[in-house]
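Structure in, sequence out. Go:
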């Protein structure tokens, strides 16, 4: 028994696939963000700072005792 494989999709079908993709993508992003946030808080991973003392959010996190670890003014004694 051979089955016909559908290789052409209508725009409406692709829009349905896009909706499914966006839903899955949002769920994965939310899950990863929650897991990341929990780990970050558990170990107090910090955002590194640049030479001027400003946080550099796009760089990899560092340990809390790293000399480049950024702390908000309210966190510093």
């Amino acid at each position: 028994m051979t089955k016909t494989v559908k290789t052409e999709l209508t725009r409406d079908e692709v829009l349905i696939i896009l909706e499914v993709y966006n839903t899955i993508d949002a769920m994965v992003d939310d899950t990863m963000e929650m897991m990341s946030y929990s780990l970050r808080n558990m170990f107090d991973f910090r955002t590194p700072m640049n030479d001027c003392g400003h946080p550099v959010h796009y760089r990899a996190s560092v340990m809390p005792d790293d000399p480049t670890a950024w702390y908000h003014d309210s966190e510093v004694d």
